[in-house]
Protein 1
Amino acid sequence: MPNTPALPSPEKHIAESTVRRLSLYLRVLDQAAARGLQTISSVVLAEEGGTTSAQVRKDLSFFGSFGKRGRGYDVAELVTALQDILGLGREWKVYIVGAGKIGSALVSYRGFSQRGFRVVGIYDNNPQMVGRMLDGVGIRSMAQLEHDAARELPDIAVLTVPAEHAQAVADRVVAAGIRAIMNFAPAPLHVPPSVTVKSVNMALELEGLAYALVRRDAGEPPR
Amino acid sequence: MPNTPALPSPEKHIAESTVRRLSLYLRVLDQAAARGLQTISSVVLAEEGGTTSAQVRKDLSFFGSFGKRGRGYDVAELVTALQDILGLGREWKVYIVGAGKIGSALVSYRGFSQRGFRVVGIYDNNPQMVGRMLDGVGIRSMAQLEHDAARELPDIAVLTVPAEHAQAVADRVVAAGIRAIMNFAPAPLHVPPSVTVKSVNMALELEGLAYALVRRDAGEPPR
DNA sequence: CATGGCTTGTGAAGAATTTCACAAGAACGC
DNA sequence: GCGTTCTTGTGAAATTCTTCACAAGCCATG
Ligand SMILES: NC(=O)c1ccc[n+]([C@@H]2O[C@H](COP(=O)([O-])OP(=O)(O)OC[C@H]3O[C@@H](n4cnc5c(N)ncnc54)[C@H](O)[C@@H]3O)[C@@H](O)[C@H]2O)c1
Ligand SMILES: NC(=O)c1ccc[n+]([C@@H]2O[C@H](COP(=O)([O-])OP(=O)(O)OC[C@H]3O[C@@H](n4cnc5c(N)ncnc54)[C@H](O)[C@@H]3O)[C@@H](O)[C@H]2O)c1
């Protein structure tokens, strides 16, 4: 019997960096599957994912034992295992709040729907926008948010409102029972510990590049 | 004489996490300045930035000594110091490659221009798009890229093309002499070590949220 | 000008993460 | 069946990052 999918239930805390890399491995595996690869070794997985083979094996070892010595990992099996671990076996309902430039771009992003993230509602406080459709999803009034959430039980809220309103919107979203927030506004959010927040701060990434450029020119040791 | 801005020249390697936090502090300081604060302590800076006061002081200590014991940090002074450290004292020329949904949203993003990142060129390989204007910047043909770059010497390329073309575009951009890339495509890029890449992978962040949600329900120790 | 209350800067300790290195298992050829 | 080659899984070591804890400095007040 071929290696039944291990139930992903480590009792230890898993580092966020490990979880990020698991997502990355999943992406590499998708490509490998598309190229018709049956099997992949930790060395190849590492090369394509930009890390080391020891890191790959260690990351996976937290959740079980998925490979075969001398062979490597079965691509299809590992995809299933990683999806299980990451909670991608189901559909996640997403609200987007803020139907502006970035919010509209995200609605139709296939990278989300491919992984089971389904946008079920878009909210905006501008009456001009309410009622319009974005990629098949209607823009709703902010007034409805709590009411809709009680019925639809969305899992994740994506915040794409101006930074100065981000905290207020986060408060409402939390009060409405949503326990995961992805924040695109460049403002640190303060939420109860039962709520998970991930921030995507693009200006911050650019600043990291600027830093790298000035350091490089100044002759920073490249480590 | 009031604390002349220390030249930011640590000989040691500085962790990426430290640099990210410096950007964050800068954001908190902007808000503090807007509220009229003259001075701010590491405790307040930490609370608003979502870290600890010891972390704030340690981060800053890598670059010099910016505070006054018993008083805290002068907001305006620290802003200047951080901008210096991060290389935000100058204008950075940015090319955006891929004038699709996310590329167009980024062109007009004020968070970039506010920090001195100026979009000087947008490129697309779709002839239909070439010549159109996006927020005052014309979309140019990919054929021109190398030629324009030799003249304009852009510092940073933002890649917003489909994942399957990201590597090819990265290769061209590197060959054109650009040494910093911000990659929005969900594909790991392989570039020479002289080039710095930062990837913003939004699906990956969502997957991190999904993981947090399944773990939380499964009763992961909250660390 | 002495005292008390605050706050920084920083070595040292502690914790977390990554890398090393190797025993053990699997496949293949002969 | 046996040796060779490959590759995993994992303790242990090494490295990196964060937190602790406190001496030293600054300011206000009396
Ligand atoms: N445009 C970009 O490329 C970009 C990039 C990174 C981050 N961001 C951040 O994303 C956020 C949105 O940016 P954008 O460019 O899409 O702005 P935008 O102005 O195009 O869109 C913001 C939308 O939010 C709505 N809104 C405002 N206040 C609201 C509230 N209280 N409740 C509900 N809706 C509200 C507005 O009506 C508008 O439709 C900002 O915080 C911005 O800093 C934008
Ligand atoms: N839309 C989103 O919300 C979103 C979010 C995160 C990441 N992304 C990623 O960003 C990238 C772009 O996404 P999008 O939604 O803007 O797609 P899009 O299709 O709207 O835009 C892509 C643009 O790139 C151009 N292009 C294609 N190949 C090119 C090439 N070889 N050289 C130059 N230009 C080329 C196309 O003409 C098009 O204008 C994708 O990799 C996507 O995965 C998108």
Protein 2
Amino acid sequence: MSTAPAPSSRDLRHPASEDIRLEAVLHALSDPMRLQIVRELAVGRDELTCSQFALPVTKSTSTHHFRVLREAGVIRQCYRGTAKMNGLRRQELDDLFPGLLDALLAAADRQAVRLGEG
Amino acid sequence: MSTAPAPSSRDLRHPASEDIRLEAVLHALSDPMRLQIVRELAVGRDELTCSQFALPVTKSTSTHHFRVLREAGVIRQCYRGTAKMNGLRRQELDDLFPGLLDALLAAADRQAVRLGEG
DNA sequence: CGCTTCGTACGATAGCCATCGTAGTACGTC
DNA sequence: GACGTACTACGATGGCTATCGTACGAAGCG
């Protein structure tokens, strides 16, 4: 018992797979900033630190958006040194809602191209 | 000029296909009430009147939800006598975001079963 | 121990939104 | 015209949320 981990501000709570709600996922992705984060996470297979995203908002607001994504069950976060790593919960989302994440990402890509970003 | 249609409160404005935004669609579907409406619309192939939905809210609130769905481009509404008919814009959504609507409906079904509704 | 980097916590603010109730409009029928 | 049905419009309200700034904490590096 000597290694009981003291609760810390660095403990990150994630919903269990079975607690992920479709409505919460959709709400999380209905914000342009958060949809952008998820799109960037989806292209690389590796995790990214929060600061690797060039979001047009302050750091406070970024923190907020990452937390919304985490609490909805879309991403998983953990600390590595001073950095905070972010990764898509792809496997769990695919198990819960087969095909949904791919369809969402494809839809976002398609719209980005259509609106002249691509 | 005798047949110039006077603008009326019964004119319903719908976004054109190219003005439908993924974020707006996701936001529209992130409300449990509206997701339920869309699920019920999806099972039947016919249009339904507003009053055919047994929603646990007042009629005012229903009107609000149907309008959000229409303005997001998810449903198409038109009057038939005193009734207002509602239909999914399935073809247009499939053209814009192939596979998305099906994946969303499948995800909603799956979650309903998982949560013990089915 | 300082210093830097990275992210958090907290409070404030402004805007959006789900809900309701009441009053009203449009249509069909008698 | 009178009545009923179906839905709307408007205003209110309470809650949520995206944004910011400032101050702080945790880890690494010299």
Protein 3
Amino acid sequence: MTDFDGFFKSAFTVDNVIFGFDEGDLKALLIKRGEDPHQGMWALPGYFVDPQEDLDSAAVRVLEQLTGIKDVFLEQVHTFGAVDRHPFGRVITVAYCSLIKISDYTVQASSIAQKAKWHSVSRLKKLAFDHSEILESCLNRLKRLVRTRPVGFELLPPKFTLTELQHLYEAILETPLDKRNFRKKILSMNLLIDLDETQEGVAHRPARLYEFDQSKYEEFLADGFSFELKESKRKEKGNGEALSKGQLVKNTDKL
Amino acid sequence: MTDFDGFFKSAFTVDNVIFGFDEGDLKALLIKRGEDPHQGMWALPGYFVDPQEDLDSAAVRVLEQLTGIKDVFLEQVHTFGAVDRHPFGRVITVAYCSLIKISDYTVQASSIAQKAKWHSVSRLKKLAFDHSEILESCLNRLKRLVRTRPVGFELLPPKFTLTELQHLYEAILETPLDKRNFRKKILSMNLLIDLDETQEGVAHRPARLYEFDQSKYEEFLADGFSFELKESKRKEKGNGEALSKGQLVKNTDKL
DNA sequence: CTAATTAGTGTAAAAAGTACACTAGCCCTG
DNA sequence: CAGGGCTAGTGTACTTTTTACACTAATTAG
């Protein structure tokens, strides 16, 4: 080792942005910090990486310790390292992101998390540290992803209606989509299994229920398929169905 | 600060993957390390981040110190943090990537770089640390990028022919493209300025020279436009033009 | 002048994207 | 039990984009 070897007292953390979808809203799982700095503020579930721990494993461990959520697939998104982002010293943080079905998990705060709760992404206050920025960067990534892959299924309960799926896409993309074109595209991908069941207890015509075909999805990815969501190019016209715009577009897009 | 505060003696580095294009080949800029660990091995130009330095600035500084290359736009790609990736201790590294015109820069090794040299990406040996893995992840990203944005212009000299541009795309994507469709697409994007000049000193019909229209490119990005490259779906047929496949595809793909 | 070499060009058929409006089925109420 | 309210569900014609494909043009070298 040379004289100045670049090592100094510093730390790495991981921060997780966990997206879910519920009540027509895109949500993110946040904890209320029970520890300084920023005690009492809402923050992403994140914590220090141990000296003998890989980043990816740390993300998984920290998420479970703080929120009780385990067995999720976390994907690295970006690393944030502004000099003053942590008041106690030099800390760089690696942001991870995941999409989960809210109904599949019970959130249980522990460790430094006083509470753990789902928050609507569309109305978030300022978070601890630079976590607002981190969340936003994950959200942008999700928007990109959702146009490229049939990503939404991870966020819905096992059985869902096409309208729910459409609402999910609309919530993520913040744009209305055309019902008929959306259905046409989604169904043409053959990723859905029609369960031949219908909703119960709704005060209107009940919708058919579908489930996501995991094995077809894997084929889809293996084939290098992707699809794209496009917004309509047409100008607003203010009548009839004109509010429902946008298409789901599947491309054969081999690498 | 709590008792265990997560801080320990550790380090962050940045590693830069600088792509260029020359002699029909995609190249990456590497340094020969003049310092342990891995002295004498080829490596990405990377070094320690100073305690009072942002990650992005560190990437820029380190690149200049090691190779003399400055004023490049570096984009963060991924962070690598395997526990044993550095023999001297816990070091996580943030990988940055850039595309430059080789002819615009003079490479000048200094600091711990014994040499700095462009290497063909297609025939690389094992690099120091986990740098092979890092380079590969940047290459994958480049492949994705090149389908989504007219990215290649950064890699070519100011004046270039359409055939050179096509070769660049073919080199990055490792797939042949159809000449007529490629030209049609590229020209329809209106990102090229026809210089009304032709090549000189070539032993065949000289090609027209084009330059990249920077202002149109900025419009393009602002409009959220993107384009996509697709490979042909057809089966090999072994006759005539059948070798030239693939298309350049422009989409209006507003977010 | 001829051969060699790369540049440059168009079209027709197929696939995908887009806009758009009405009927069907269930519950609730009076 | 009829009618209103609500969401589900469906098809078509038009436009745009993608795709496959083969020959002529311009230059240099010999």
Protein 4
Amino acid sequence: MSMRTSWADSVSAAENAAAGGGGNRSTYVPPHLRNRSASSDSLAALPQGGPDPVNAAPTGGNRWAGPRNDYNRSGYIGGSGGRGGGWNNRNGGWDRGRDREVNPFGDDDNTEQASGEPENTGINFDAYEDIPVETSGDNVPPPVNTFADIDLGDALNENIRRCKYVRPTPVQRHTIPISLAGRDLMACAQTGSGKTAAFCFPIISGIMRGQSAQRAPRMPRTACPLALILSPTRELSSQIHDEAKKFAYQTGVKVVVAYGGAPISQQLRELERGVDILVATPGRLVDLLERARVSLQMIRYLALDEADRMLDMGFEPQIRKIVQQMDMPPPGLRQTMLFSATFPKEIQRLASDFLSNYIFLAVGRVGSSTDLIVQRVEYVHETDKRSHLMDLLHAQKANGSHGKVKLGASDLCVNVNMAFLSPSLVVNKQALTLVFVETKKGADSLEYWLCSNGFPATTIHGDRTQQEREYALRSFKSGNTPILVATDVAARGLDIPHVAHVVNFDLPNDIDDYVHRIGRTGRAGKSGLATAFFNENNSSLVRSLSELMQEANQEVPAWLSRFAAKASYGGGKNRRGGGRFGGRDFRRDSSFSRGGADHYGGGNMSGGYGATSGYGAGGGYGASGYGGSYGPGVTSAWD
DNA sequence: AAAAAAC
């Protein structure tokens, strides 16, 4: 209840800080040196960790400054171990920190954006009020309210400001202090709520202030990153890399990405030039490990994005190999953070192998599907799907291509920021429609059919070349091709602004996949629409779907409820654990607790949820009196 | 049964 006040305070505090530091234009001060006051800068006091304020910009004019002076500590290990002694001596080795670092913000002239400029990357924070939060584990560090409450370091703070992140999102408020405290973490937070930054900030900050003294063994041509971030698709790794580069700009922390389908030579070159944070997909990383071009022995941070996917049947062996069978330090000697919007209990149990005395955190409602997404289910026979899709697209077009989707009586304006965009931008930022299908062949044929019928569509799936995939995504994002037909390759993590409508042309078999798919819209507090085509082929999903919709306060069609009621298989693997949260710590479930191996220090919940709804036969959760009980030493952010 | 992920 005091949240609004404290957030408002923090906003003005952040704005003052930003204005105070960047105000003087007469003398150029590199961004990473602004806001630096000798007394308050703990990073400057560290011996060798972060950028060196003295050497970084002796003339005050070198914007490529900000090198690390501990080049030998991490990343590429030069053959001779001496100054400039790397085999890759093109740049003299010693000055790799001075390599040209492309400005990811594109504001090289360092002028502030014109006032009145839209904040189209901003998060709609009002949408995140009353979000329930659950934590469990030993000694959970309390959440912070502002970025200023956390000492992330000046360079990182400057990048946060340039990203226009004024306030931390709920998952960031909870995650960052946990992570800075060095704790392992399993975090479950709704789609589009800022998870990437939540694990990137502490990693970058931790590397900046890390001790430099660690001696790395001699391993020519072997890169030794300090942090590893794994994700299940190439595009997602690429996206995380782009984000991380922004956050790490001029911090001296080097971020490199490696994934398949792209020439390995360039990735090798990047690795040779030094890497602190490696973002990768599993296959290419295993390749690099087997070639001994990467060693994991220096890993201090391991983050798995979409962690439940990374640990499901298809990926688990590769992940085990990377995490357990190569040279990565074991749990306890590294910090491990797992993130996803969904976390089935079976996967949680698998995941606990990788964790040490971890904290479980759940932020958000119902498997992370937010009520910002309007979910519709329509009964459509298999043979009618194409014409039905056509009807939807025509209706959308007729309603104005700029993001208004007719929703019965009320119009849902799906392009929230449109009013603030300059006219020239509005033209290009039309509402985008993402259509999910089951198979790669199905994607190709639907794309062809749409194009033949005058709808500009493209497609992304695993049978296309990486070039084609990336081109399709770009073309979709730009609005050039406002319809994208996709397989599950695009279901998770991709942050595509202006996706107004997600169509589940073919529903997935797993409710968690549905949650991730519809999460491509309604991001960053904006609203969105998700339409599903349902028929008898989807009966395995009907129960969990109707339950999910009820919990997200969605209108469940009567026919769907009837269908769900008569569906004979009551439980099945699609049943959720019976909680109203997307995640619940499996350690709190008695059927999972065996022996004393797990550390579990109690649980805490808070948030505005009412009477149990929809989970009549659920997991015996509502009755057990968790709500409102607070464990020792932990306070909720929402009370 | 499908999708993803290395060459």
